[in-house]
């Protein structure tokens, strides 16, 4: 049996939107490829080859998204007491007062480009956060090295 993929409701919806966008891109890529095949001569097929490769990349992305979504289990709303999958966590550096907000998600949803930053529960930081509560102080591995943070708040 295929392994389930735990997703937040928002993460599931985001992946569904990405799947729809990729399907639209595939239609466009297929149309471009057909036009190139009809107008291609034997001497210059570099554009044709590039179009085939792009279509293959899009198809692979669609397959990947469909696989994740077919195995998706949408998580119940996270608790505000203990950090778990789906929790939005506010952290504070006790020395500098610097604040950081992250959401603990499955690897399929992880993205450092979003706000709050979505960190995988399989990452060192994600694993370190799981099970902690407001007021706990923990040492987290960050890109800048090990830092202490205090859990200020946990939101669903």
* CATH fold name of the largest domain: Helix Hairpins
Q: How confident is the prediction overall: mean pLDDT? A: 90
The general outline is: elongated
The sequence of SSEs as H and E is EHHEEEEHEE
Class computed from helices, strands and strand pairing: alpha/beta
What is the CATH domain class of the largest domain? Mainly Alpha
The second-level CATH architecture of the largest domain is Orthogonal Bundle
**Distance separating the two termini:** 30 Å
Largest sheet descriptor: 5 strands, mixed
Report helical residue fraction.
25-40%
Strand content: 25-35%
Distinct helical segment count: 3
**CATH H level, superfamily name of the largest domain:** Transcription elongation factor, GreA/GreB, N-terminal domain
CA radius of gyration is 21 Å
Number of strands: 7
Low-confidence stretches: none
Whole-number tally of structural domains: 2
Provide key terms for this protein.
Helix Hairpins; 5-stranded mixed sheet; 156 residues; alpha/beta; single chain; Chitinase A, domain 3
A few lines on this structure:
By secondary structure, the protein is of the alpha/beta class. It has helices at 9-39, 46-70, 124-129; strands at 5-7, 72-74, 88-92, 99-105, 117-120, 137-142, 145-155.
Can you describe this structure?
The protein is of the alpha/beta class and 156 residues long. It folds into two domains: 5-74, Transcription elongation factor, GreA/GreB, N-terminal domain (Helix Hairpins, Orthogonal Bundle); 88-155, Chitinase A, domain 3, CATH 3.10.50.30. Helix content is 40%, strand content 25%. It has three helices and seven strands; from the N terminus they run E-H-H-E-E-E-E-H-E-E. It has helices at 9-39, 46-70, 124-129, and strands at 5-7, 72-74, 88-92, 99-105, 117-120, 137-142, 145-155. The chain has a five-stranded mixed beta sheet. A two-stranded parallel sheet has the order 1-2. A hairpin with a 6-residue loop joins strand 3 (88-92) and strand 4 (99-105). Helix 1 packs antiparallel against helix 2. The longest helix has 31 residues, at 9-39. The model has no long low-confidence stretch (mean pLDDT 90).
